[in-house]
Amino acid sequence: MDTLSRISFATWLIAATIGSALADNDTQAGRAVNESVQTSGHASASAAHSIAASGQVTFAVSAVPLSVGGAVLGSGGAVSAAAARDSMRAATAPIGTPLKVTDETISVVPPNEALKAKSKATAP
Amino acid sequence: MRYLRRSLFILFATFAIGIDSNAAGFSSSSSQAGEEVHFKPEQIISFAKKVERTMAAKGARVAILARMGRPVSELPEGMHFTHVAFAIYSEITTKDGRTLPGYSIYNLYQKDDHPEISALVQDYPVDFFAGVAQLEAGAIFPSPDLQRRLLEVIASPTYAALHDPHYSVIANPYTLGKQNCTEFVLDVVNSAIYQTGDINIIKANEKAYFVAQPVNVNPFKLMLGAMFSSEVSTSDQPSSPPVTATFEKLGEYLLKYDAGSSVLTILPD
Question: Where are the domains of chain B?
């Protein structure tokens, strides 16, 4: 414990002595230190939780790239013929052709929502 | 011992660095406790949708997306964005069973409780931008040929195999042992370019053709950062100054070698 105390004191002394030299906080290392302090120091809700709580998002349970190497991966879960056609059209269109995106805002399922599910969810 | 180290760390941070309430992560997930919200949910939602629509208008199946987790005034010379990931045009299945077209983001995020360790995590544009310090996105659109190759790598086991979970915020892209989000993206890009999963071939080519960003930090400060923060490491930096991969350097690299690629900055309306 004596050794430990000496190390602790020396560390504190170094920290206190060089304090002003580091006050500008312009380094990535410094910011990483900041970030760790903040992470440990706040018990507030996360940014993602705040978005989820806004009630303006649709939760997703999975996402697959529409096409890979010429093979169409999506559209398997399309519930309507029109949606399936749209998926197929997008998957086979040349890269660079404008694509459709949903107007809904998609987000990962937060833990409190996942806990309501009766069956296992897959990765988002 | 752990308690003592923690106390010393907080003491050090208080004296030497100062606690910045605007601190946010480099490769931290938006679900991380302490990742603060700097904008109203409506602002984040609107901006994320604008980014998504911009990518869709360009017909991007794959884009490389970057966010600003820190205000630009706090970033060192040559750095603007703090986190980089792939955006993939996908078919998204919602919790209520519908399928919707949109982008899914493929990230390397630091673990909440172990910032020196990373994991591969998929989320969506609104999650990606949730904790940003500034509403500004960087987007690289690789050429159609490279987008096709990237899709193949990302859908294959090579994608996960290229991930090294040992995280350092200033990871050296030329060496092995540490990796951050941008180095991971660079490795995947070069895996697609050279059509190989062999990390030694990828690193040899990065050394030959990719120009990394020097991290101009006082060596003493860096030493202290490495001492007191587990996510800062110089163990993969054989020379001084340290070097790291940035979104800007990745953009320059692709503009030089990938004909047909483009880089865009997206701002809110």
Answer: 9-266
Nearest-by-Cβ selection for B15 from A8, A19, A36: A19
DSSP category for residue B179: B
pLDDT of residue B37: 73
Q: Which residues of A56-71 are buried (b: 16+ CB within 10 A; e: fewer)?
A: ebbbbbbbbbbbbeee
Contact B248, B82 (CB under 8 A): no
What confidence tens digit (pLDDT) does each residue in A65-81 have? 987 766 666 655 555 66
CA distances from B31 to A120, B81, B111, B135, B214 (A): 20, 19, 10, 18, 31
Average pLDDT (A37-58) is 62
**Residue among A31, A53, A74 whose CB faces B23 most closely:** A31
In a mutagenesis test of the B interface, which of A8, A12, A37, A57 is the best target, namely the one with the most B β-carbons within 10 Å?
A37
pLDDT of residue A44: 38
Kindly state whether A48 is in contact with chain B, defined as any CB-CB distance less than 8 angstroms: yes
- List, in order, residues 6 or more apart from B133 with CB less than 8 Å away: B22, B24, B38, B68, B69, B70, B71
Q: Answer whether A107 sits within 8 Å of B229, measured CB to CB.
A: no
Cα–Cα dist B269/B263, whole Å: 19
The answer to whether residue B231 scores a pLDDT higher than 90 is: no
**Distance, CA of B238 to chain centre:** 22
B262 vs B269: CA distance, rounded Å: 21
Find out whether B45 and A56 touch, Cβ atoms under 8 Å: yes
What average pLDDT is seen over chain A?
63
More confident call, B262 vs B1: B262
For the segment B200-224, what is each residue's pLDDT rounded down to a tens digit?
Answer: 999 999 999 999 999 988 888 888 8
Angstrom distance (rounded) from CA A38 to CA B10: 10
- The C-alpha atoms of residue B230 and residue B167 are separated, in whole angstroms, by 9
What are the E-state strand segments in chain B?
Answer: 62-68, 83-94, 99-110, 118-123, 134-141, 213-214, 243-244, 262-266
* Contact yes or no for B34 and A39 at CB 8 A: yes
